[in-house]
Amino acid sequence: MKRWLKLCSAVGVALSMQACAWVPPMLGGTAGYGDPQHNPLIVSSQNAIHALADGMARHELGDAPVLVATVVNVNQLSRSAPLGRTLSELYASQLSRLGFNVKELKLRGDVFIQEGTGELLLSREIRNIADTHKASAVLVGTYAQARQNVYISIKLVRTGDSRIVRSYDYALPYEADIQKLLVGN
Fold first, then answer.
1. Could you tell me if 168 and 48 are in contact, meaning their C-beta atoms sit under 8 angstroms apart?
2. What HEC string does 37-102 produce?
3. Which of 35, 41, 54, 147 is most buried (CB neighbours < 10 A)?
4. What is the bridge-based pairing of β-strands 164-173 and 149-158?
5. Which CATH number fits domain 35-183: 3.40.50.10610, 2.40.50.1020, 3.40.50.720, 3.40.50.2300?
6. Vertex 107: Cα angle to 86 and 166 (nearest 5)
7. In 3D, which of 67, 39, 35 has the Cα closest to residue 175?
8. Is 19 helix (H, G, I), strand (E, B) or coil?
């Protein structure tokens, strides 16, 4: 009986020591989220910024900062979902990696379409913020949800005259992660 008790105690101690050494996979970076280099949302947003900046002469924007507005719903330009905010963060990160002078601001992305013309204009609020920070351009964008895809359009707009310097359009498959980011928490 004593021998049995000692064996159980030893096994118990060994198991408890092993439990202390265990680290959940999530903390180790392998929680099933996949390699960020292969995540469709991350890769497509990086590709979009690369395409937007491809062939762009550095002097086009000078050293002045670029602001990134929240990507908004094309049907409700004053509203966004977590998808729009996430895209904006990814765009800002990639612009910074490419050497752009990105100013960290949380812009609502209030862009609007002038009735009857479809012309993209910067809102007075964003224009004032851009002036305050002496920004040369603002990256704005819209998304539209469809049955199988979410269509995204981004534009680099010069603040002085609202001229679209560069633009890029792409689509994301309407899969589970994207659906979740469109509806929020």
1. yes
2. HHCHHHHHHHHHHHHHHCCCCHHHCCCCCEEEECCEECCECCCCCHHHHHHHHHHHHHHHHCCCCE
3. 41
4. antiparallel
5. 3.40.50.10610
6. 75
7. 39
8. helix
Give the three-class secondary structure for 30: coil
46, pLDDT greater than 90: yes
d(CA 32, CA 40): 14
* pTM confidence score: 0.72
Looking at the predicted structure, is the pLDDT value of residue 55 above 70? Answer: yes
Name the residue among 156, 152, 149 with its Cα closest to residue 173. 149
